[in-house]
Amino acid sequence: MLSKNIIVFVGCLFSQICLAQTDQTSDLKTFRSAESNQPGKLFPQVNNEGKVRASLYAPNASKVQLDLGGKKYEMTKNEAGLWTGESDPQDEGFHYYQLNVDGASIPDPNSRYFYGAGRLGSGIEVPADDEAFYALQKVPHGMVSENIYYSDLTKSWRRCFIYTPASYYENNKSRFPVLYLQHGSFEDETGWVNQGKANLILDNLIAQNKAKPMIIVTDNGYAFKPGDKEATQKGQGVSIFEDVLIKEVIPMIDKRFRTLADREHRAIAGLSMGANQTMRIVMRNLDKFAYYGGFSGTSNYPNTDVIDPNVFMDGKFKNGNEVNNKLKLFWLGLGTKEPAPFPKSVGAFKAMLDQQGISYTYYESPKTAHEWLTWRRSLQNFASLLFR
């Protein structure tokens, strides 16, 4: 008898939750389940204005908030213990978010998880008008492989991800150029595939003959000199990422994959922190790279002052003609809604390039800030110019 009562109780509770969720779906003509949800999850949802609606079953909680875009939105609880809340309209593209339950920030159990802000957490896709360029299309698809390696420089196990285009597997004698592509601060080597959709962007570009087939390598930009274990774990050790890339990763990729192993067929790019890192790397290794892309960042960040090319980066930009002769493409990108100090710091850097007569390509992503849609668009535009 007791077991029957429990079954009845659970059944009633489940039906209450389902009915509560059904009530929330009455306006699905405007609100749709997000593409970034876990399979089969109805919430979170996004409407045609970019508003986000989240839901959480937490009957014992006294306060639940949706934390999105730097603002916390109050959620309300129904009789079944189901909390729902709605945000203001969000910019198009991908955004990190979390739920706050009685003061504790937690990932949304309905969302897929992404590594950002130094931890695995929730993310949501707000549909964009131009999303077709990074959508999963019916075109030949390449492969993303995980490569684990031991670094003698960091004395630790590391990994990188390698995108190989569909044509890589059609002819085992063909060789391909390589783009080394770096993430931003508090992200890792998974970012460009999971959040950035780099593989899908290249699949679509290549299928439309808008980009040359290429290999893409994404590594972890946090690489530290062995020593202070606590500082290294906090990301505060002595960075040796440049050495890891130049001395370990590139030789390893050239050995394991069919690459065109010369500077004319090697590019490097990054976003935000990665843009700062890769700019320093390329200017100190012009014998290794012929293409550079900086998305939402330059190496004078966060400074916005006028740059003295005789002093900046040890005079690497002092001789404009030499830079022009070495780099086939110097590319910069920025969102039109980027926060301070990015517009002024990038602006100061561009002014220095103009002063030195250094050729560059500049792109602005419309109506986006320091976020993944800016960087997806940047990759789309940058990749289409590589290895021409």
UniProtKB/TrEMBL annotation:
**One protein family per Pfam:** Esterase
What keywords appear on the UniProt entry? Answer: Signal
Q: Which InterPro entries match?
A: AB_hydrolase_fold, Esterase-like, Ig-like_fold, Ig_E-set, Mycobacterial_A85_antigen
Signal is among the record's keywords? yes
At the top level of its lineage, which domain of life is listed? Answer: Bacteria
> Which Gene3D superfamilies does this one have?
alpha/beta hydrolase, Immunoglobulins
Task: Give the residue range of the signal peptide.
Answer: 1-20
Q: What is this protein called?
A: Enterochelin esterase
For this protein's source organism, the top of the classification is: Bacteria, Pseudomonadati, Bacteroidota, Sphingobacteriia, Sphingobacteriales
